[in-house]
Amino acid sequence: MAKILVKQVRSKINCPLNQKRTLEALGLRKMGQVVEHDATSAILGMVNKVKHLVSVEETK
């Protein structure tokens, strides 16, 4: 299965509560933090919800 790296690049201050919870569910707690996930439909949907706060790259 494909893997993706998700990095938080913008702050969650002044974001709605559901977006803050989505970031925490992805494992992102601080700016600049990077986490690796499988590219499942659930994870991609969560990333799409906060796409303005994160950057995504594919890994091998």
From TrEMBL:
Coiled coil, from the record: none
Keyword line: Ribonucleoprotein, Ribosomal protein
Domain of life according to the entry: Bacteria
Keyword Ribonucleoprotein attached: yes
Protein family membership: Belongs to the universal ribosomal protein uL30 family.
PANTHER family in the cross-refs: LARGE RIBOSOMAL SUBUNIT PROTEIN UL30M (PTHR15892:SF2), MITOCHONDRIAL RIBOSOMAL PROTEIN L30 (PTHR15892)
Protein name: Large ribosomal subunit protein uL30
Gene it is expressed from: rpmD
